[in-house]
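Appendix B. Raw example, untouched.
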Amino acid sequence: MKKSMRLLSVVISAITLISYISCSSNDNTNVGGNNGTINPGNDPNFTIVANSDIGFTNFNRKVMVFDIPIYAVSAVEDTKLLHAANIMAQYLDNNEDGTVDNTTVHNTMKANKAFLFMWKTSADMNNFNPPSGFSGQDLGADETVPVWHTNGHTGTFDASLEEVWHIITTAGHERAYPTVFSSQTGSEISAAMDIARGGRFENPPASYPAGAWYTYTDTTCNYSCQVSEYLYWIMTSMLGAQENRLSDISHEWKLNTRVLVQSQDPAAYTIFTNPTYILPTVLPDGTYRR
């Protein structure tokens, strides 16, 4: 959920880019690459390197996280890039033992050429024409807010928790386990979402039935998009990210804690606690393997 304008999804050949713009932190320190040099950073696990990948020349540098690239334009702060890398690592290796938890999801992401790209202005997105056959997700530098994790989960939300999770589910879970996680109608998660919305709606209705707890109203978000958002709300609510945010999100999502998901959305809770899928049980905080 974002408080500002949502860009239309960009679909080019086999690529799916779910794009968002929002405003958050004004932390402009450690901008990388503006002087033509690449600062590798001082993260103990990840190194910023120069990028020369074909089709991604808009981005001057990248970080590799378990073979998944995170690209950034030159104006993106190094601290934000490294934070996103740590968030992705913690989602993929939630017990932080150095090994990806669900190799099926990870291998599916790699097979679908998953990537994350970080932008600073809307022009960065408008000028990006990715190659076909890739699955990508954007993340804005100004919506990436590392201090949210050290401020008691208060203040401007760290949207990296959402956007990183989106690329993991869209390029990973949805394709690795289509009967369960597919964003198309007929999957277990889409059936659970239809219950949460009080019915099956191809597009957000003018008003939701009484009793619905997932009430997203963005008309640019089609059925597949709605499932992707639902996956985000379930996961982050179960991990505790939404506990302090009910007043901000209740117009869209009402089950902001694990207890509420378990009691009111048992269909989704059963899926997300199924050990087969080895889903995260600890909320990422941007400090992988500290």
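End of appendix B.
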